[in-house]
Amino acid sequence: MELLKKLTLYVSALNGIQMAISKNTRDFVDSLIDYYISEAPSYKQIAEVYVPEIDSPIDAAFGFIAGCVYSGFLQAYKSQQLSPSLEDTQEFHKILKDRAPLIKKAMLEDSHNPHLRDKSNKIEKMN
Fold first, then answer.
1. Distance CA 23, CA 21 (A)
2. From the CA atom positions of the chain, what is the Rg in Å?
3. Can you give the residue ranges of every domain in the chain?
4. What is the reported pTM?
5. Quick one: pLDDT at residue 126?
6. Integer Cα distance of 120 and 115 in angstroms
7. Nearest partner of 30 among 110, 99, 109, 108, judged by Cα
8. Residue 110 — φ and ψ, nearest 5°?
9. Among 3, 24, 63, 121, which is least packed, fewest CB within 10 Å?
C-alpha cells in the first residue's frame, strides 16, 4: 500500500509539471522517439534472441529503446555543457510515457512483417 501511495504522488507530480525542456531539446527528443518507433521491430528481434532468459521481448525492447532515447536526451544537454534539472528529467519521462503506446504498437504490428511491408509500400506509392 505504501508503494501505491508513493506512485500516486509521483504521477500527480508529473501531471503538474511545467515545461522545462527547451523547444529545441523537446523537438530533438520527439525526433528520437519517432526514429525508434520506426525501428521498434528491429529492437524486438534483438530482444527475442534472449528468450528464454527474458519473459517479454516486447518489454525488453521497450527498455532498450527507452535507454537509447534517454541517452540521446542526456547527450543533448552534454553537448551544450549543461546538466538536466529534475524538472527536465521528469518532463522527459512524461514525454516518453505519453509516446510509449506508439512504441509498443510498432513492435506489435512489426513493420518487418512482409504482409505489413507490402501495405506500407502501396501507401507510399499512392503518395
1. 7
2. 17
3. 21-126
4. 0.71
5. 38
6. 9
7. 99
8. 50, 90
9. 3
In a 3-state reduction of DSSP, which class is residue 64? helix
* Phi-psi map region of 68: left, alpha, beta (phi>0 left; psi -120 to 50 alpha): alpha
- Cis peptide preceding 52, ω within 30 of 0: yes
Q: What does the block give as the cell for 56? A: 517479454
Four-residue CA torsion sign, 51, 53, 55, 59: negative
Q: Are 66 and 99 in contact (CB under 8 A)?
A: no
Task: Give the torsion sign (CA, 15, 94, 27, 121).
Answer: negative
Residue 64 vs residues 28, 58, 68: alpha-carbon distances, Å: 18, 10, 6
Q: Are 62 and 107 in contact (CB under 8 A)?
A: yes
Closest CA to 28 of 73, 68, 64: 73
Cell 542526456: give the residue.
Answer: 74
